[in-house]
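Notes to self after the Tuesday call (sharing in case useful).
The group wants a holo model before anyone commits to mutagenesis around the pocket. I volunteered. Ligand is 48H. Logging inputs and output together so the record is complete.
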Amino acid sequence: MDEVLISRAITESYFKEFAEAMDVDVAIAGAGPAGMTAAYYLAKEGAKTAVFERQLHVGGGMPGGGMMFNRIVVQEEGKQILDEFGVRAEEYEGGLYIVDSLEAVSTICSKAIKAGARILNLISVEDVMIREGDVITGLVLNWSAVSWSKLHIDPLTIKSKVVIDATGHDSEVCRIVVRKLGPKLKTQTGEVLGEKPMWAQRGEREIVENTREVYPGLIVAGMAASAVFGSPRMGAIFGGMLLSGKRAAEVAAEIVQRVTPL
Ligand code: 48H
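Result:
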């Protein structure tokens, strides 16, 4: 057994994938439930899709369930997406289903990768790339370890026809856009409005309505959509994240079609 062969196998395979992720249809910031669900639906439809995740693990806030109890809840509409993934959901009461959060994260991740999406962990999105008209045309990336260790190292850039901000509560990509390009988001003030206090019913409804193009070339999904458009949080019910991810994939596919020359 040749140790160098092991090293070469890993680096050659990884860098081939990274190079392929440098020019994609859709680039997604964040491999939480919304980002991975969007990636699954896009890849399934044949869109070249890459997801960049800051952490070592995927799943964002999903593995932690509610207050570290590794269970999540979904409503009927969310369960239909879990059924499609093959994630088991047990009926509880009041139209709610209970789900093992680790089964959900691992299955959604596996489905997205097997559908053809590339998920690259330990990479942080630190900026966006723009062209004429300030249209977003890609993401600026760095190893997460660079910022964690406060090293001064320049990033690399990837190109995409559309970007999805699925970075959760912090809506990091949208905040970068406001900071660098001004308050020009398609919100009431042009800025990130900020998430409102808990109201699960409204939060779950509005998150899907808020999943849209918020800036030319930029879609917002999941908890980032609630934060950007000022909707209530909803706690450990995750149907909205899955439905928002699916909706983001539909919106992204429309934009990809629009900008792809025939
Ligand atoms: C690369 C980044 C960056 C960056 C962040 O937080 P998430 O799980 O987000 P969603 O929207 O898929 O799901 C939200 C859900 O987990 C949640 O928090 C709920 C339901 N809250 C309700 C409530 O009331 O509190 O995942 C976002 C992912 C994470 O894995 C981050 O590490 C990652 O994005 N991320 N990745 N570059 N700049 N910023």
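Two things stood out.
Residues 22 and 158 are 4 Å apart (CA to CA).
The pocket of 48H is lined by residues 29-35, 52-55, 60-62, 124-125, 166-170, 172, 222-224, 233-235, 238, 241 (CB under 6 Å).
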